[in-house]
Amino acid sequence: MTTTQPFDPVPFQAFEQRGWERAAEYYGDAFGGLTRQTAPAMLDAVGLAGHERLLDVACGPGFIAAAAADRGADVVGLDFAPAMVAEARARYPALTFRDGDAEALPFEDASFDAVVMNFGMLHLARPDQAIDEARRVLRSGGRYAFTVWASPDKAVGFGMTLRAIEALGNKDVPLPEGPPFFRFSDPAETRRTLVAAGFSNVEVQELALTWRLSSADAVFDALSRGGVRTAAVLRAQTPAALEAIRAAVVREAGTYATGGEIRLPMPAMLASGTK
Ligand SMILES: C[S@@+](CC[C@H](N)C(=O)[O-])C[C@H]1O[C@@H](n2cnc3c(N)ncnc32)[C@H](O)[C@@H]1O
């Protein structure tokens, strides 16, 4: 089911694609230790035992594809940023990665047993279309799973940054309009969307992830270089505002110091369903 689009998706998708090309080199080391923590629960959610054919959509550096291959699956990773595909190939040369758009998957109907998307949904111009596409390429009875961040009051790395921008900077910078970043943080909305798209046995659960960083500065660096929308908002600040935001984030991140590192609670929502 595709819902009515309240904005033009083309500029937003181009903005995200440029942003991921720019962030590709930095993203894997900045976020990989965090985002790959979902792999066991996500692969369990699609019932991956081994030998299934699995598609990892918006694969980035290929962390979930690699975890699925370790379980014995026959995997393909797909990403629309050529620099991300290059990163994935460099990290996991034995696996198959290709360029492609989550909203127009370059595969035949019913060609996979499982489709997953780890933290990709919140970057899509047309998430409903990507969900329809995932369902199309799944075989009947195949399983779909995706993750997004929990709301910023829970995913504290985002919460502290967004609050600092709001208090000390300008959050209304001119960016192409896109879908709400935290839409699928709401389990009811996720359930409704997957059921409307035709999935059954829909489940939504919260995963307790911890972002471990070497220093409070590393939190701000990761958010300002390793992503797209927040990074663009930060780049658009005046130098004085940016420095004030940085100092506030570093101060708050420092309150999570323990055992010689920073440990930030960054829970995620894991959604799954059966075609
Ligand atoms: C936050 S990263 C997640 C990467 C990886 N799945 C992980 O778990 O770390 C989001 C990824 O989605 C990709 N992406 C965003 N929109 C896409 C689209 N329409 N089609 C394919 N990939 C897309 C980006 O290039 C980026 O690699």
Q: What does this 3D model show about the protein?
A:
By secondary structure, this protein is of the alpha/beta class. It has ten helices and ten strands. Helix 3 (63-70) links the parallel strand 1 (53-57) and strand 2. Helix 1 runs parallel beside helix 4, helix 1 runs antiparallel to helix 8 and helix 6 packs antiparallel against helix 10 (239-254). S-adenosylmethionine binds at residues 16, 20, 31, 35, 58-60, 63-64, 79-81, 84, 101-103, 118-120, 123-124.
SSE order and pairing:
Elements: H1 9-35, H2 39-45, E1 53-57, H3 63-70, E2 74-79, H4 82-91, E3 96-99, E4 112-118, H5 127-137, E5 138-149, H6 156-168, H7 187-196, E6 200-207, E7 210-213, H8 216-225, H9 229-235, H10 239-254, E8 257-258, E9 261-265, E10 268-274
Parallel strand pairs: 1-2, 1-4, 2-3, 4-5
Antiparallel strand pairs: 5-10, 6-10, 7-9, 8-9
Helix pairs in contact: 1-4, 1-8, 6-10, 8-10
S-adenosylmethionine binds at residues 16, 20, 31, 35, 58-60, 63-64, 79-81, 84, 101-103, 118-120, 123-124.
User: Which distinct ligands sit in these coordinates?
Assistant: S-adenosylmethionine
- Percent strand equals 15-25%
Output the strand order for the largest sheet: 3-2-1-4-5-10-6
Biggest sheet statistics: 7 strands, mixed
Number of strands: 10
Which structural class do the helices and strands define?
alpha/beta
Sketch the topology as an H/E string, one letter per element.
HHEHEHEEHEHHEEHHHEEE
Distance between the termini: 14 Å
Report the total helices.
10
What does the radius of gyration come to?
18 Å
Name the quaternary structure.
single chain
Helix coverage percent: 40-55%
Mean pLDDT: 94
3D shape? globular
| Uncertain regions spanning at least 5 consecutive residues | none
